[in-house]
Specification:
This protein has a single domain, classed as P-loop containing nucleotide triphosphate hydrolases (Rossmann fold), CATH 3.40.50.300. It has seven helices and ten strands. It has helices at 44-51, 75-81, 98-108, 113-126, 142-154, 172-183, 196-202, and strands spanning 5-13, 19-28, 33-37, 59-64, 67-68, 82-85, 160-164, 188-192, 205-210, 213-215. Strands 6-7-8-3-9-10 form a six-stranded mixed β-sheet, sandwiched between helices. It has a four-stranded antiparallel β-sheet with strand order 2-1-4-5, with helices on one face. The longest helix has 14 residues, at 113-126. Mean pLDDT is 91; it is low at 221-229.
Length: 229
Amino acid sequence: MSALIAVTDLHFGYPHRPPVLKGASFTLHPGERLAITGPNGAGKSTLLQALVGLNRPSSGQIIAFGQVRQQEKDFHEVRRRAGYVFQDPDDQLFCPTVAEDVAFGPLNLGKSPAESMIIVERVLADLRLSAFRDRITYKLSGGEKRLVSLATVLAMDPDVLLLDEPTNALDEPTTERLVDILLGLPQAMIVISHDPHFRRKIATRTLRLEDGCLITPAPACRNAAVPAV
């Protein structure tokens, strides 16, 4: 089965700072839910942004949907097919109402207003957010904004989801609701998360970004020896 995304030996550093990515490599296959963890500042968000062309690596290769992606024009298709849900929903929501925010993507893909509203109704119903349709976006709670941010991405019918810390500041019921939603979606996904309980519930595979590289984390020891008294 061919990979949806294949990253090989990716290197990236911000100006006047030490390198962040120092040979990161991984693949994402259809149906996978890949979780990426690692310490703060390890470069997890930097890596996601490189996948959609927001950061340009100094070396290495990104193959997305069967094509090598290097130049700005190469990433136009990637941004359409890989839905990026930002860590801060206020970076994603900017229209007055929820319906307008969810319709924004389909309209920009060339759908008519009538077609876009059909998509809005379907996506909101699928996420059990129909009651939010006419809500004022900036008056939503943090958890509500996160769910609406996901709806805006799903309205574009992406092949892959890129989720950056989706459970930040969520209470337990909203986190469980998000888990149910993600488990019911057909898309492959890459999920950055510090939450081990969330990762265990949704991930089919986990990698840890450490010292600029992606590694398979060691399994937790369940039978640690009890120190002698």
